[in-house]
Amino acid sequence: xxxxxxxxxxxxxxxxxxxxxxxxxxxxxxxxxxxxxxxxxxxxxxxxxxxxxxxxxxxxxxxxxxxxxxxxxxxxxxxxxxxxxxxxxxxxxxxxxxxxxxxxxxxxxxxxxxxxxxxxxxxxxxxxxxxxxxxxxxxxxxxxxxxxxxxxxxxxxxxxxxxxxxxxxxxxxxxxxxxxxxxxxxxxxxxxxxxxxxxxxxxxxxxxxxxxxxxxxxxxxxxxxxxxxxxxxxxxxxxxxxxxxxxxxxxxxxxxxxxxxxxxxxxxxxxxxxxxxxxxxxxxxxxxxxxxxxxxxxxxxxxxxxxxxxxxxxxxxxxxxxxxxxxxxxxxxxxxxxxxxxxxxxxxxxxxxxxxxxxxxxxxxxxxxxxxxxxxxxxxxxxxxxxxxxxxxxxxxxxxxxxxxxxxxxxxxxxxxxxxxxxxxxxxxxxxxxxxxxxxxxxxxxxxxxxxxxxxxxxxxxxxxxxxxxxxxxxxxxxxxxxxxxxxxxxxxxxxxxxxxxxxxxxxxxxxxxxxxxxxxxxxxxxxxxxxxxxxxxxxxxxxxxxxxxxxxxxxxxxxxxxxxxxxxxxxxxxxxxxxxxxxxxxxxxxxxxxxxxxxxxxxxxxxxxxxxxxxxxxxxxxxxxxxxxxxxxxxxxxxxxxxxxxxxxxxxxxx
Length: 656
Ligand SMILES: [Zn+2]
Known about the structure:
3 domains, alpha+beta, 22% helix, Neuraminidase, 12 helices, binds zinc ion, six-stranded mixed β-sheet, Metallo-beta-lactamase, Chain A, elongated
């Protein structure tokens, strides 16, 4: 379930009310690519001003204004008007505003929703700065970057206009030799100049990162986030009462050349599939560009089929060993020859190609067979675990194998959406599947996995809100638990403690008898290791492990052996640290007390920061994360677990 992200999103008070909704959302992978930026911004600026703006009445309460910047949808309620998108320039937005206010006299524009950051949807925002502007949390950085890049591209337009005007006065044309074209160019440059002279990039006041809803008048609007498809900040608006699905650039009307430099075509297909599956919820579908009336769900299917045909053709071209340019020349999708911008279909082919390069340089996921992702086991010196396999852009960390050895879970920031995601891979017929988003992942920060030794319960830390509370998830990590169901995992529940407030937990580990060990704010230092026993189905009040383990410094990530006889903790800032944090180890004595936590030393600890300790369920390998702050690089290492044996103090060894 996706709920509204509150907290850091509000910059000015928001009238109306938000409610969580539960229309499932999805995920997926994106990296970096800049090649198409220039092309894209050229197109955007070409669209900044249109010759004609028209309005189409969809129903008594809904009109769509169409201009050079695509479509603005305006919905009237008795409390005011909500509009979706704002065109590509303040000039055009002003015209749209006049039309909307003229059509709904006496009604005020209360909300502007931006479907994503592209100029033709957002550069008119400043005209509506008396309304509350809502958009995805990722809009602002994209908007400001694109604005700066586009501005740079058009630097010196005054000089260009001046030079062309002098030529015209002399009766000469520009390089083309065509006077009429030169006149048109001057007019175009002047329009662009007028836009830049007036434009103030205006990001949304309210930023959301997951499905949420807004009540205005008698109508409820759902804002659906799906992860990266056309951009990493796509937002689809569903006007529930009018059965209106306002798609932004997730739907163009029979048009090619629709991808941006950061589009994720594969995920875009999945998003459209999902929307098609839910089509009983809407009567009208509004594309970002093209006709707004009479467009039904079948247009979603057409767009999905186009993207799929494109993707499949590029996959086939790569399998044939073609180069990118050969693919652009050879791929034949003339089924779409009547679509707008078919002559630019090569740019969509290129975008798919770049995405494949970005997310998987070899494209074909390698064959991984056998235990531990088929990796050659390490000796007594730590080695990188599965280099180049589970990492492309983001770094996996906090890795967990299931006791049966047939599942592998890890946390990654691969999708670049600034939250962390839990991924999983499965070993089917001895072959490992490609990483997928785990079923219990959310659009909030999810991290710090720990699996019970019986493999039945998965604990993790998350900033997701607790259902039924309006509390902001900002800065609050709670511990959550999900239970294995047939082939998947249950809806996660927050872990509660008997007669004790919910604990803000950091990192946890669990023994076979169900005792949870975790790091949380403590009485000895900033973060201390605590434990909570599992008694009669609830967790007891957490107890501090005391001064053998905890100090005035930070005790953070930890691992407890299933039998509770060994604990490994990442400690920060201790005087004997090598780097910001090191891994320390302690053994439980027969009287239940702990040996003094001791630095594990080289070769485990280095100048980098060591964290995320984990012993494999079979006890054979020790995994940990090493973070190099200079290179800003995280690496997961593994080493033969006998290194731990060597760290046992004499008193423990003798008793073994
Ligand atoms: Zn767009």
